[in-house]
Structure formats: C-alpha cells, structure tokens
Amino acid sequence: MDAVSGVPQSPENNSAAAWRAPDQLVTNSSLSRLGIRLGRNREAQRRLRCKQQAHENYFEAQLNETTVRLHQLEEHKKKLEARNALLEKISYLNAKVSALPDQDGTDRQPVSLSLELEASSHLFLSLAGKPRAVVTEEVQRLSLAELSTIWTEYMYEIGACLLQLDIADDADASTRLHKLTSEAMNLIATRTRLDRSVLNAVMHQDVLTLSSLGHDPFAHKLDGAFYTQILTMWNLSEDQTADLLHLRKLYLTRRCVLSLERKAIIRRLSQIDCHILNPTSCMAELQDLTGALQQNAAEDYQMYYKVARSVYRGVLSIRQVAGLLVQAYPFVSSMEPVLELLALKWHEPTMDDIVMAAEAEPMTAEWDQFTEYYMIVGAMLYPDYLPISTCPLAT
C-alpha cells in the first residue's frame, strides 16, 4: 500500500521500484567517470595548447633572431660595398693626383685652403707647400682646369681620411676630415656665389673638369642609382629625414611663390603704356617694378645656394657630406635629386602637388624660421647635425 494515498501497490510496481536504485547508482558512477575523463581531456588540451604556444614562441623567437641576423648581414654587406666603392674611388683619385704636374720640380703637398667668413674677401690657399693669401675674386678667375686640380687633391685627402676612419676611430683623422671637408665646401660655395656658370654646372651635375674623360669608369652622370647608394651610405636618422623633407617642401614652395610674384610683376610691366612725349607719368612705377623684378630674380638665384648650404652645413653630418663629395667625384652632386628620391621613398607629396598648393599655403612662417636657421648655420663651423627646430616657429 502506498503510504501517502493508501492505495495498494501491485507486485510489478514494487519490482520497478526495487530496480530503480541500482540504475541510479550506475548512472552516478558513469557521470563520475565521465567527469574524470572530461577533466583529463581538458588537462591534456591545456598541456597541448601550452606545448603549441611554446613551439610558436620558439619559432617566433627563431624567426626574429634570423630576421635580426639577416638585417645585420645586409648592413654588413652594405658597409663592405660602400668600403669597396671608397677603395675604388681612392685608387682612382690616387691615379688622378699622381698625374697632376708638379710645380718647380717639387713634390706636391696636400692642399690647404680655408675661408674665414663668408663676408671676408680673403682666402688662404696653399699649393705645393707654398701658402699664399688670395682674394675671393682670384677664386672666381680660376679656370675650370685649375679648380679641378684643387678639387681633385681635396677629394683624395678627404677619401684617405674616410678610409682611415672606416678602419678605426681616429681623433686626428676626424679633425682633418672636418677641416678638409669644410674647406672644400667653402671653395665650391665661394665659386658658385661668384660665378653663375659654375652654379649652373653644379645644379645640372655637370663634370667639373675640362679634361677628356675617355674611358674613365667614373665618367657618368649622377643617376638615380648613385643617389640611392648615397641614401644607403648616409643612414639618416629620423630627425634628419624629417628636416630634409621639410626643406624640400619649403624650397619648392618658395620657388613657386617667387615665380608667381615674378609673373605678376611682368604682367604689370606689360600693362604700362608710357607715352613717348610724356613718359614722366609712369616712370616712377616702371622703376619700382623693374627694381622689384631684379630683387625677385636675385632672391630666386640665391634660393638654391641657401637651401643647399643649410642641407650640407646644418642637417647632414660632416662625414655624410665628405662621403657624398668623394663618391660624386669627378662631378659635384646636386641637392634636388636626392631630396626627390627621399620624398619618393617616404611617400611624400609630389613636386606638382606642392607647387599646386603653394599659392594657398606659402609657408611664410616656415620661411622666416628657415632664414633664422640659415643665419645660425652660416655662423657655425659645420656642426654634425643642427635640427631646424633649434629655431622656434613663429605663431
């Protein structure tokens, strides 16, 4: 009988109740074993994941180590290639220097030329061990052959310093490199400021010598491959790269602004109609406009010189400049191609994009900052690197 309802239970019900308890025991035992098995599976999966993660970490570490090693090997390869190119150029320069005629039968001594200040009218030049003071006008009167002779000796001496420093750091070699490189830059800068034909040659990467090149292995134009090699050799820092790209944009913008101003002056000049019998009515305006045009042309002429001077004397280190001078010989490198190549590498706006934006964004404040920077650079003795940010940007 059921204890609750009082209804008698049949024997079948009693039998079912009797068998339910063992089944329940079996089910609990199975669940227990299943739980243990699942726990073991989870632990096995955890250990497998840890093992896989360890393998991944190991292979990632190996990959990183291999990548670093590969980068080191590539850098070492580039250094070896640069050193090999330097050795070839020094050998070439040695042959050039040996072929130079001696003066009065004496052995040729290294050149020493120094420009005291840009405003100074005197330079001190020593050839074949005979120092003498010369005025800057004498530098202007040097023929290209004479200038080439001096330049060749400088490049040979600078190359020898670079090779010595490539082997080991040497304070004397570093000091001499700084002196020779600054003197060589002063020489070419003085000549280009005084002689527009030389500036035109430099800007167009023309050869610096009148002698026949024949089958000279280095007698070629300075192409994209050359400037790519120079960028690799320079190994610019991030700050140097940013400053060079800034100078490129400023240079192109300023040239465009000057061009627009010049066109406006020319248009105004074409509109002036001075009557032959009564010219006084427009003579003053005509004189003002021609003076403005002359000033515009003079500033445009000096633009390349100012920006190039800031690049070579301020942004680049003396060793970077020295390497460029030697590797470019017998040519004188141009600033513009290396800036354009750098802009292409860093996906900067194209020249056309900058020119189109110049009228709306003339970069007036940036130009004032550059003018101050240019004056500071001109008063210093070739610092290894002077950031443009040294001069605050006017707001």
Number of strands: 3
Count up the helices: 12
Low-pLDDT windows of residues: 103-121, 125-131, 209-215
Structural class comes to mainly alpha
The strand line-up of the biggest sheet is 1-2-3
Q: From N to C, what is the helix and strand string?
A: HEEEHHHHHHHHHHH
Sheet with most strands: 3 strands, antiparallel
Radius of gyration from the alpha-carbon trace, in angstroms: 38 Å
Distance between the termini: 103 Å
Mean pLDDT: 77
Form type:
flat
Give helix % range: over 70%
Beta percentage is under 5%
Structure overview:
With 395 residues, this protein is mostly helical. 70% of the residues lie in helices and 4% in strands. It contains twelve helices and three strands. The protein has helices spanning 11-99, 136-141, 144-167, 171-194, 196-203, 224-234, 238-271, 280-315, 318-328, 335-345, 351-357, 364-379; strands spanning 112-115, 122-127, 130-135. It has a three-stranded antiparallel sheet with strand order 1-2-3. α7 (238-271) runs antiparallel to α8 (280-315) and α7 packs across α10 (335-345). The longest helix has 89 residues, at 11-99. It starts with 10 loop residues before the first helix and ends in a 16-residue tail after the last helix.
